[in-house]
User: Fold this.
Amino acid sequence: MTTLYRGMDRATLDAAYNNSRAVPGAARILADFRARSADVYRDLPCRRGLAYGPSSRQCYDWFAAGSSGAPTYVFIHGGYWQACAREDFAFIVHGPLQRGFNVVLAEYTLAPQASMTQIVGEIGALLDHLQTDRDGLGVAGNRLCLSGHSAGGHLAAMHRSHPVVSHAMPISALVDLEPISLGELNDKLQLTAREVDIFSPLRHIAPGPPTTVVVGGAELPELVRHSREYAAECQQRGEIARYVPVPGCNHFSVLEDLASPTGVQMTALTQAMLQQ
Assistant:
């Protein structure tokens, strides 16, 4: 057995990050997410496909809370940077909307069409776009929470220090790319050693806004470790960071909690932003 990372060989490492295998019925769960998300687009007013860049996936959807000066919740979807789309997760807008947040569902180009360098840069371009409010949404000068799930949580953590961000909430985030670079997830990503270093949020914690680090309490141990260590490192660096494990939730059901206005995540976020 060849040890690659923390005593794990290749097969063990791949299993340690395989959320679909770890959660029974994962394919059915994702299909349900997509069906409920289609209902959201049918039933709620939305400005779809607003462009922040020239490529087809450099776009976002906008759901307005309906009140002037409302805070904005930006959600970046997961899929290990190589799968899924914003439309698959629109069902989560119910939680933030009912808590009084505008919602942005962010999109980005996937690997292997895009490198990690390009993907990270695209989210930065989206935030620049929102900061200048080029689409006249009314977000300029108001509070903004940058969030995301899994790979999207990684991208949220990467940009928590962007000047438009007043709160960050990475969910089940991958904050160290070293184990990702050593397993099957890297087949499409093709991470370079430089990308592993500079795009691992755990290794580069800059001063930033208050941060709520969320993970499902029943997630794979490696996912829990990423979030726990990231919150602890932020605190060690003097950052305001709260670690919020959501009891009983796996990698997918943690999004059900997000979609609920009375869930652990929206309750914690609302309380945190009221204190800022």
Observations:
- Residues 26-43 form the longest helix (18 residues).
